Amino acid sequence: MISSSRQRFWASVELSIISNFRYQARALTAQTAETDAIRFLVGTQSLKFDNQIHIIDFDDENNVINKSVLLHDAGEIWHISGSPADKAVLTTCYSKTSESRVLTCAAVWRMPPEWESGSHESPDDSSNNPQTLELLCHLDNTAHGSVACVLWEPMGDGKRVISLAENHMLLWDLQESSTKATISSSATLEGKGQLKFTAGKWSPHHNNTQLATANDTAIRGWDLRSMSQIYCIENAHGQLVRDLDFNPNKQYYLASCGDDCKVKFWDVRHINEPVKCLEEHSHWVWSVRYNHSHDQLLLTGSSDSRVILSNMVSISSEPFGHLVDDDELSDNEESQQEDKGKEPLQDSIIATYEEHEDSVYAVEWSAADPWLFASLSYDGRLVINRVPRALKYRILL
Amino acid sequence: MSSATTPPDSDPSQRRRVHSMLKHYYGLNEEGKVTEQAESLDPCDINGPHFDPEVYLNKLRMECSLGELMDHESCMVKQIRSLDSDMQTLVYENYNKFISATDTIRKMKNDFKKMEDEMDCLSANMAAITEFSAHISGTLQDQHAQITKLSGVHTLLRKLQFLFELPARLNKCLELQAYAQAVSAHRRARCVLQQYSHMPSFRGIQDDCHVIMEQLAQQLRQKFRDGGSSAKDLSECVELLLQLDEPAEELCDKFLSHAQSRFEADLQGLEAELKDSPVTDTGGGLVQKTNPGSNPVSPSSSSTTNPFLSPTAGTDILEFIDRGCNEFVSSLCLVIASYQELFINRPQEGELASKNIPEMANGKLHVFVDTLAARYFSLVERRIQEEKGVSDNSLLVRALDRFHRRLQAISKLLPGSAVPSQGTEIVVRAARERIKQYLSALQTFYHDSLTDVRQALAAPRQSAGGASVSGGGATSKDATPSLPELLTSLSNFILNQLKSVLASVHLFTAKDITFSNKPYFKGEFCSQGVREGLVVSFIKFICQSSRQYCESAGDRGGSTPPALLLLLSRLCLDYETSTISYILTLTDEQFLVQHHTPVTPVTALCAEAREAAQKLLNHYVKVQGLIISQMLRKSVETRDWVNTIEPRNVRAVMKRVVEDTTSIDVQVGLLYEEGVRKAHSSDSSKRTFSVYSSSRQQIRYAPSYTPSAPMDTNLLSNIHKLFSERIDIFSPVEFNKVSVLTGIIKISLKTFLECVRLRTFGRYGLQQIQVDCHYLQMYLWRFVSDENLVHFLLDEIVGSAAHRCLDPSPMEQSVIEVICERG
């Protein structure tokens, strides 16, 4: 149920809420396990200062952002990801410099329980007295090289993660409340040249047994039970593939983006041709995200400093709009339904957000509110936007 | 005497004047009173009728001096003297004439007297002759009547003899096969026999005749059935049979079926040609006679598949149509003519008229002709369809013309027949088909020329050898000079080809072609067929195929050489600016296109061409940008920037980037104009980079290197960004060199920036980036429209590298300059 006050708000201007960090940042995630508060985690990148994890709480009622800071002194953060089971647990990929060598490691962390009780300090205060993350365990990978990303099992119990390191794919079991990590299985990408995973995504379908990874221009699908490759889309993009996302409602559908400025949609059963291809950005597309519940909504972030929200109705799970049960239809509603049927939604760009002034490396939907999303640019600017009200009602009604 | 009287200076005109004056004096003037009235009443006029000597004398005396009077007097005397002599002459002349006239009259009187006597004698003789002749005729009267009677009997006897001899004569005729004679004889006797059939002797003769004629008819029918005889014989046969009261309908059928069998043979002959032609077709198709003389195309190089060479079939279409016309159509005409002669246009006599033969016969004829013509047409159409090659359109047009012309004969013979209009339809279909073939031939030609261009572009690069595979941007210098030549030759080829095709198609509407004045060829053929179907479609095809180059080559960008993209883009742009309107004007003029139906306007085509040009150029920028980006990315990604050594040189890859950019600049400059730059800052226009960099760069870079609080750098870069416009990296470019180069450099530097941000640098790593960026700055600014863009992007790169540096201690500006200038 939508409260009347919110409706009033949506009736007013669609605001973007902008928050600036003083650090450069690439890593952004929604707090997956948190379903009440709208909360994002941002990891900063700095070689000279202690890195931090910023917890961004968005107060929907008042349009206010509350920031909390946790210290992450292990190194600059390249990737961050929250546990789907325990909202206090998260993983980071961070780079560590030792003996003039830069190595990217991964670790599981727990947020100290007090951060929330410590009230939402103003940013100035927090820098004085930041609390530190509690290290649960390292995903020890010195043998396998730099970690590109860590993936939690989607909607799992927070016991299994996958890390992608160079050309290795490691499936970890977290035991003893995540304080101990053991490799349960692994796979290695063999081939000519120096292969390196750049991105990956754990499929929420098929009982969480499938994984898609990207290396160079290819997208590969893996079966986690046998740790073997099940499909491979060679030359999925003209250049490097930067990110992937699974359609949450259609099990064979996959979106990818890359340095050819394109976003492509794949049906992994027919990998010769993409189902659809968007070319709206004017530079590399770094991040692509399906909305968790309405898979026609697609968010992309690019180094042309733009975030684009598109409505891909034709290849979504609701190509004809929201399906209403027949029983609930009165005659009156039926006629309305017919009226709407005459003008089905077209695939279109809903909005282009230009609040950023530097490359946008990460975009993320909120885990709690499906109509809300955040984007993060390199200069440390986080922008929170809403899906336009008109579209929202069209999808819902 | 006369010589004495005529004045010595007299000439004919003067004499006439004198004559007339004399005449006048004696009142002989025919003009009479009119002249008199016109003459003055002046009494002083010496020639006038009212002359008064007294008045005249007085006047003279009063007016003139003595000398003048003396002169006047002498003149007067002279005149009087001459008048006198004239008068004498006239009197003599008249006297002579009078004497001779009197002589003549006397002579005539004598002659007439003699003649009168002779006439009297003649009339007496004539009276005697009349009397004699009346006497003779009176005596011969009786004998004349007798002779007339005898001659009547003789005639009757002759007729009877003819009747009695008739059977024998008919038999003889039958033996001699002189059927015509027999029939005519029988016809003559028939009425008489009919009339006197009640008499037994005549009856016998009639029966005999009947039997014989029956036999004769039998024989005639037999002959008719045999069909071996010529058309003329046959028609004679039919005529005789008709005269023998054979049923006309049956005869029509027989006649037509007989003719049918012969047409069957003709058609089979034609079909046989059709059937074996595919065999020779495939055989000849491989050999492919090259006949450059008649060939409107002269492709730049020998392409293996040339659509403009016709398959050398067994017979060409003209021969085929000729054969069809000569054998089938002409004999059809003959048959129609003789049929009409026999059954339709016959003078209607007696009972035949009542049977309404012409209508019946006409109906049969139409059905017959239609069925035959349908078969013939289907054959012709099959043959036309085989005519795939477009080598010699004149042959086809001539064949069609002949085909059409010969059918006109049928229309003349058989007004109201659907055959000629069907024939016209075939011609129309053939013309349509031809246009389609020309279009596809043009398309193939276009593709072939592009392949040639592609080879020409590739060839020098291969010969250069050293050019690496990845460095596609470096279209080696051997290739570049020929780019404009290739463009002009390509566009000339296409234009010439199009013109020759238009000329070929134009044959269809030539004045001496019979079907050219049909409404289709006047209207629809020109506007819908040639203009829309051929010219507009071709231009659209060019745009379309150009666009396809952008789409198919989208991934990896390797398949189409960038130079080709550039060339095509320029080609499309040229089309937009001039060629399209030229071609269409040419077409409209040549074909006098009257636009009954809406046609594609020039502007729409131009817009399409421009769009294609834009797309191609954008794609070119993208491809070239990606090639350079790839170099830069590899160079950043594969190096260990933390543990690198102190920079001593500009990295080779940067030199390579500048070299490639220069060669792209040259390449683009060959085809596109310079374009507009924003005003250079004064220092860069002097091209003294050292001054520029030392004065300004330090100010710019220095703050970002200093490891002060991160706040400062952010603030600075944010302020900087606030004042600089957002840069769209892969954005559409304008049609000029500067814009293209700006696009390429933007893409390259943005890639450089993004790659730098993903790495971590050591102190020397940063310094190397500084050196590299300075080097790029030195050389790249001149290519772009707004040098600030390059400065901004390079600043960003160095700034980002500084951020990503573990030990950010920048290099001295002077050292950087020394290194850059050294290498």
UniProtKB/TrEMBL annotation, chain A:
The residue spans of each WD repeat are 234-269
The record ties this protein, via Pfam families, to: Beta-prop_EIPR1, WD40
Under SUPFAM superfamilies, the record lists:
WD40 repeat-like (SSF50978)
List compositional bias (Acidic residues) regions by residue number. Answer: 326-336
GO annotation, biological process: protein ubiquitination; regulation of cellular localization; regulation of transport
Q: Which UniProt keywords apply?
A: Repeat, WD repeat
Domain EIPR1-like beta-propeller stretches: 21-309
Q: Where is this region: Disordered?
A: 326-345
Q: Which InterPro entries match?
A: Beta-prop_EIPR1-like, EIPR1, WD40/YVTN_repeat-like_dom_sf, WD40_repeat_CS, WD40_repeat_dom_sf, WD40_rpt
Q: Which family does it belong to?
A: Belongs to the WD repeat EIPR1 family.
Q: What's the protein called, per UniProt? A: EARP complex and GARP complex interacting protein 1
Give the organism the record lists. Answer: Cyprinus carpio carpio
From TrEMBL, chain B:
Q: Where in the cell is it found?
A: Golgi apparatus, trans-Golgi network; Recycling endosome
Give the GO cellular component terms, alphabetically. Answer: cytosol; EARP complex; GARP complex; membrane
The domain of life is Eukaryota
Q: Does the keyword Transport apply?
A: yes
Main location as per UniProt: Golgi
Ranges where the record places region Disordered: 278-308
Task: Please cite one Gene Ontology biological process associated with this protein.
Answer: endocytic recycling
Which residues fall in a compositionally biased region of kind Low complexity?
Answer: 290-308
Residues covered by the Exocyst complex component EXOC2/Sec5 N-terminal domain: 46-279
User: Is Transport one of the keywords?
Assistant: yes
Q: What does the UniProt keyword field contain?
A: Endosome, Golgi apparatus, Lipid transport, Protein transport, Transport
- Quaternary context: Component of the Golgi-associated retrograde protein (GARP) complex. Component of the endosome-associated retrograde protein (EARP) complex.
The record describes the protein's role as: Involved in retrograde transport from early and late endosomes to the late Golgi. The GARP complex is required for the maintenance of protein retrieval from endosomes to the TGN, acid hydrolase sorting, lysosome function, endosomal cholesterol traffic and autophagy. Acts as component of the EARP complex that is involved in endocytic recycling.
Q: Describe the family membership recorded for this protein in Swiss-Prot or TrEMBL.
A: Belongs to the VPS51 family.
Q: What is this protein called?
A: Vacuolar protein sorting-associated protein 51 homolog
Task: Give the organism the record lists.
Answer: Cyprinus carpio carpio
